[in-house]
Specification:
It is a single chain. By secondary structure, the chain is of the alpha+beta class. The protein contains 1 helix and 4 strands, in the order E-E-E-E-H. A hairpin with an 8-residue loop joins strand 3 and strand 4.
Length: about 70
């Protein structure tokens, strides 16, 4: 994939905790923008939104808040 774009949640400038995503018709790829040559996580397109929602829920739970 060559259509990588930075997350809108990166913060100003380059951000310190940033991911990039790229997608095609069947999959979404996720990588760390600071080390793009390292491992890439790829999920089916239909699983991407539930995957992100699960991450948000777990993160909120760990911080003691709600989603």
């Amino acid at each position: 994939m060559d259509n990588w774009r930075k997350s809108s949640y990166s913060g100003p400038d380059d951000g310190n905790e940033c991911v990039e995503i790229a997608n095609d018709l069947t999959r979404v790829a996720i990588r760390d923008s600071k080390t793009p040559a390292r491992a890439t996580l790829t999920v089916p397109t239909g699983a991407f939104t539930p995957f992100i929602e699960a991450l948000r829920t777990d993160f909120a739970r760990l911080r003691g808040g709600t989603v």
